[in-house]
Design goal:
By secondary structure, the chain is an alpha/beta fold. The chain is built from 7 helices and 10 strands. The protein binds adenosine-5'-triphosphate. This is ATP-binding cassette domain-containing protein.
Length: 231
């Protein structure tokens, strides 16, 4: 809370813009994007294909730099951090559930989830203990020693969510979290976001699915490069 008793933003975008340039050809994908994410909030980002959803998610996660404006994470301008500080911020304060962010196939579920903690310098025993606890929390305690190839799509996604949450991030960024899942697995993943969103972290979820968007606290739509609040 700040002095006025308002919740501090975990993530804020100010006048965010992204132009892709290729020689003389420029494409303005995002323009003047303003956005504030509060602790525990769940936000859906929707928009037509090519409207800039992935571009926005990459900027929020510090995986890409804006052409204009800035992204503030806990008050820090991500673009101003050097690569090391940025990695640390990503590892300790953000969680990612992206399609290309695969679980490591040669490690089991417990080891995959423990990985961010080991990278942050936690001891092996402590990392294993916390990984087991969060896997239990997402209903995967019975699959600790299974490798990704031995898990169903829904189970893998729950392990990915556990890995995103294990270091206690302020914000989790998700890209089409139920993309390839059957309806039952998708429902489990959504219930988890509902539950964890209030208690543990804020979630930004890119989705094409109106049913997912309807479950989030807010829905933001990208239209012609601008982010609009949808009522
Ligand atoms: N590296 C790049 N260089 C040039 N143009 C790019 C680059 N990445 C994305 N674009 C363009 O920017 C626009 C937005 O792409 P983006 O992937 O952010 O859209 P999206 O809303 O996530 O789309 P989808 O829903 O289809 O995944 C598209 O027109 C795309 O062609």
């Amino acid at each position: 809370m700040n002095e006025a008793g308002m919740k501090e933003a975990v993530l804020r975008c100010e006048n965010l813009g992204r132009v892709y340039s290729d020689g003389d050809h420029h494409v303005q994908v995002l323009e003047g994007v303003e956005f504030t994410l509060l602790p525990g909030e769940t936000v859906a980002v929707v928009g037509a294909s090519g409207s800039g959803k992935s571009t926005l998610l990459n900027l929020l996660g510090g995986l890409d730099d804006p052409s204009t404006g800035r992204v503030l994470m806990a008050g820090q301008d991500i673009a101003r951090l050097d690569e090391r500080a940025r990695c640390r911020l990503r590892n300790e304060r953000m969680g990612f559930v992206y399609q290309f962010h695969h679980l490591l196939p040669e490690f089991d579920a417990g080891e995959n989830v423990a990985m961010p903690l080991l990278i942050a310098g936690a001891g092996r025993r402590e990392a294993s203990r916390r990984a087991a606890a969060i896997l239990e929390r997402v209903g995967m305690g019975h699959r600790l020693t299974h490798r990704p190839g031995q898990l169903s799509g829904g189970e893998r996604q729950r392990v990915a969510i556990a890995r995103a949450l294990v270091a206690g991030p302020d914000v989790v960024l998700m890209d089409e979290p139920t993309g390839n899942l059957d309806p039952d697995s998708a429902a489990q993943v959504l219930a988890l976001i509902d539950e964890l969103g209030r208690e543990q972290a804020a979630f930004v979820v890119v989705t094409h699915d109106p049913a997912i968007a309807a479950r989030m606290h807010r829905t933001l739509e990208l239209v012609q490069g601008r982010l609009q609040e949808r009522q």
